[in-house]
Automatic annotation (TrEMBL):
Cellular location(s): Mitochondrion; Nucleus
Any GO BP: base-excision repair, AP site formation via deaminated base removal
One GO location term (cellular component): mitochondrion
Record SUPFAM superfamilies: Uracil-DNA glycosylase-like
Pfam families to which the protein is assigned, alphabetical: UDG
Catalytic activity: Hydrolyzes single-stranded DNA or mismatched double-stranded DNA and polynucleotides, releasing free uracil
Name by which UniProt lists this protein: Uracil-DNA glycosylase
Domain Uracil-DNA glycosylase-like residue range list: 150-317
Length: 335
């Protein structure tokens, strides 16, 4: 059987697979069929019962096979039950991933990125995620992979803070770069971000927790280039397709409403973020591109601390958008 998924709702759905026929499945159809149909090359998951795959029988003692206890299932029944339960769990996991964008992505981003969902790289990415979910714990939970898209709608983005991949420990990642779930204490990189905020923003006092959602709601897009990770294995989902997808999300910001948008502040901390923005082609005549070292303890003292990025961002926003358009970074301050 697969290991636990990343949250209780997913575990409940997978656990129920062996108890009843699969629940009604909503699928997003493309010209060539749903993702589930493409992967399985058989009827979609809305069928009443999943087919039982061939598999090895459960090993049992010969005495047990010859003299099974009264009321206990025969070895063949045990094998069929286990394989059927595992198969149904996989069908449900496929269905969750199949409708993930429809169910969890913010509407403005879903419209802007719709063409990506049927591209070969994205279908391959989904297949990879299915295999990972069936054998490992993945962060963040599926309902939080696209939380950035709901907290910061496309037309409201004023600042982009680009990270690399999600935190990979328990109760940390929830879909925003550098941010962690309540009541988790701020990781080292976020502590350094808080230090710079205390320097740049009058009245900011570093909080004891690390949830940045309140800042995201003001138009700060906390985006990782890779949106998922295997538990306790940093970078494990890099170069699987997420980087292509998130680069397109950044392009969607650059392309919105033609030249009517005042521009965006892009914070490029560390060489990977800088390379990403350079490859996409951020027009520095229209946008503010702020570069420095990464806030990690390994590099923060080599250019991140003292970079003045939050102060510069607010000054630029006030100039471009008008007074009052600045980000209230103090909204997360310790009380």
């Amino acid at each position: 059987m697969p290991k636990d998924c990343t949250n209780s709702s997913e575990r409940d759905m997978l656990a129920s697979a062996g108890k009843a026929a699969p629940a009604k499945t909503m699928t997003r159809r493309a010209a060539s069929g749903t993702l589930t149909e493409m992967w399985m090359k058989k009827p979609s998951t809305s069928s009443k019962r999943a087919a039982v795959p061939e598999g090895k029988a459960v090993t049992m003692k010969s005495s047990d096979a010859a003299n099974p206890e009264e009321g206990s299932p025969a070895p063949s029944e045990v094998s069929t039950s286990k394989s059927s339960s595992s198969k149904q769990a996989e069908v449900i996991a496929r269905a969750i991933l199949d409708t993930l964008e429809d169910d969890t992505m913010g509407e403005s981003w879903k419209i802007a990125l719709a063409l990506e969902f049927q591209k070969p790289y994205f279908l391959k990415l989904k297949k990879f995620l299915l295999a990972e979910h069936m054998s490992h714990t993945i962060y963040p939970s599926t309902n939080n992979i696209y939380s950035w898209s709901k907290l910061t709608p496309l037309d409201q983005v004023k600042v982009v803070v680009l990270g690399q991949d999600p935190y990979h420990d328990v109760n940390q990642a929830h879909g925003l770069s550098f941010s962690v779930l309540m009541p988790t204490k701020p990781p080292p990189s976020l502590k350094n971000i808080y230090k710079q905020l205390e320097t740049d923003i009058p009245g900011f006092k570093a909080p004891m927790t690390g949830d940045l959602s309140a800042i995201a709601r003001q138009g700060v897009l906390w985006l990782n280039t890779s949106l998922t990770v295997r538990a306790h294995k940093a970078g494990s989902h890099s170069r699987q397709g997420w980087e292509i997808f998130t680069a397109q999300a950044i392009r969607a910001i650059l392309q919105r409403k033609g030249n009517d948008q005042p521009g965006v502040v892009f914070m490029a901390w560390g060489l990977p973020a800088q390379k990403t923005f350079n490859s996409i082609g951020v027009d520095e005549k229209k946008h503010l591109l702020l570069k420095s070292a990464h806030p990690s303890p390994l590099s923060a003292h080599r250019g991140f601390l003292g970079n003045g990025h939050f102060k510069q961002a607010n000054e630029w926003l006030a100039k471009k958008y008008g007074k009052g358009a600045e980000i209230d970074w103090t909204v997360i301050s310790a009380k």
